[in-house]
């Protein structure tokens, strides 16, 4: 939506370059979410990204369990639907935070912190295990990328 493949090919070419150099990665849970949709983004990823782009999250299982316990303790703040979505083992958000924490990664997301939100646990608000989050433009800036 933000960077359509057919409109902003330079963006996607840069993503491929950064992925091929290992500067940007993702996780298997994101790949599974993409595969479930089988849309243009999924097709593009399958055709353009290196095989090791989507990393296995097994190494983050202990941290994932810690984050799950943290989320489960927030029943007074978040709705049951928000907790159920976040705690679904097949949803990527908690796994992203766990993997980033274990591997000292920065998460690239367009989600903006909203600690007052009750309907959704946003990645920047997982307070148990703070990880650094940036948006796409800030990622490019930090990596010294220009177009």
What is the string of helix and strand elements? Answer: HEHHEHHHEEH
Mean pLDDT: 95
Which structural class do you get from the secondary structure elements?
A: mainly alpha
Strand content: 5-15%
The number of distinct helices, counting runs of at least 4 residues, comes to 7
- State the shape: globular
- Percentage of helical residues? 40-55%
Strand numbers in spatial order across the main sheet? 1-2
Brief rundown of the structure:
The protein is mainly alpha-helical. The protein has helices at residues 9-20, 28-37, 40-48, 61-72, 80-87, 92-103, 136-142, and strands at residues 26-27, 54-55, 107-108, 133-134. The chain has one domain.
Topology:
Layout: H1 9-20, E1 26-27, H2 28-37, H3 40-48, E2 54-55, H4 61-72, H5 80-87, H6 92-103, E3 107-108, E4 133-134, H7 136-142
Parallel strand pairs: 1-2, 3-4
Helix pairs in contact: 2-6, 4-6
Describe this structure in words.
48% of the residues lie in helices and 5% in strands. The chain is mainly α and 147 residues long. The protein has one domain (9-142). The chain has a two-stranded parallel sheet. Strands 3-4 form a two-stranded parallel sheet. The longest helix has 12 residues, at 9-20. The model has no long low-confidence stretch (mean pLDDT 95).
Give keywords.
mainly alpha, globular, two-stranded parallel sheet, 147 residues, 7 helices, two-stranded parallel ribbon
């Amino acid at each position: 939506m933000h960077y359509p493949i057919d409109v902003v090919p330079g963006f996607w070419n840069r993503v491929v370059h950064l992925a091929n150099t290992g500067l940007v990665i993702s996780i298997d849970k994101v790949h599974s979410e993409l595969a479930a949709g089988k849309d243009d983004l999924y097709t593009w990823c399958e055709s353009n990204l290196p095989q090791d782009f989507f990393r296995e999250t097994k190494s983050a299982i202990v941290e994932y369990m810690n984050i799950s316990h943290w989320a489960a303790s927030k029943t007074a703040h978040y709705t049951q639907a928000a907790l159920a979505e976040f705690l679904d083992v097949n949803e990527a958000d908690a796994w992203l935070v766990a993997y980033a924490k274990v591997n000292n990664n920065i998460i690239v997301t367009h989600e903006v912190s909203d600690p007052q939100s009750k309907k959704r646990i946003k990645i920047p608000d997982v307070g148990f295990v703070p990880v650094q989050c940036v948006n796409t433009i800030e990622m490019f800036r930090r990596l010294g990328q220009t177009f």
